[in-house]
Design brief:
There is one protein chain. The protein is mostly helical. It has one domain: 10k-s Protein, Hypothetical Protein A, Chain A, CATH 1.10.890. The protein is 54% helix and 0% strand. It has five helices and no strands. Helix 2 packs across helix 3. The longest helix has 27 residues. The termini are far apart. 18% of the residues are buried. The N terminus is likely disordered.
Length: 115
């Protein structure tokens, strides 16, 4: 019963850019750094799933372009450096949610070729 009271609902806490920068700046292979890598991988997975879902729901709309274009086989660990670079470049946005900061970092680091 006490464990139910102590449980935090999913999505109850929002990670900020400040918190993500701290985790991603931790020593490689530390628990904090691994949490950073997992967070970024989750954001990428979520964004890709959302875009795919929107395209499937509205196949003739064409209004759902890819937001970034990662090279095939890109490992989540290689996304830490561009994310950290972005967070350091824009310190005024560190109070925002980390997921949107990751999106903007990847969009800047991995732009899609123009059609």
């Amino acid at each position: 019963m006490l464990s139910l009271l102590a449980a935090v609902p999913a999505g109850a806490t929002n990670v900020t850019g400040t918190e993500l920068l701290a985790e991603c700046s931790a020593v490689r292979d530390s628990a904090a750094h691994k949490q950073c890598v997992s967070y970024i991988a989750g954001v990428v997975d979520g964004i890709d799933t959302l875009i795919t879902s929107l395209r499937l729901l509205h196949p003739f709309n064409g209004a759902y372009p890819r937001l970034y274009c990662l090279p095939p086989g890109t490992a989540a660990t290689s996304l830490v450096a561009p994310t950290v670079d972005y967070l350091r470049k824009y310190p005024g946005t560190l109070h925002y949610g980390a997921s949107s900061e990751v999106l903007l970092a990847l969009k800047q680091a991995y732009p899609c070729a123009s059609s």
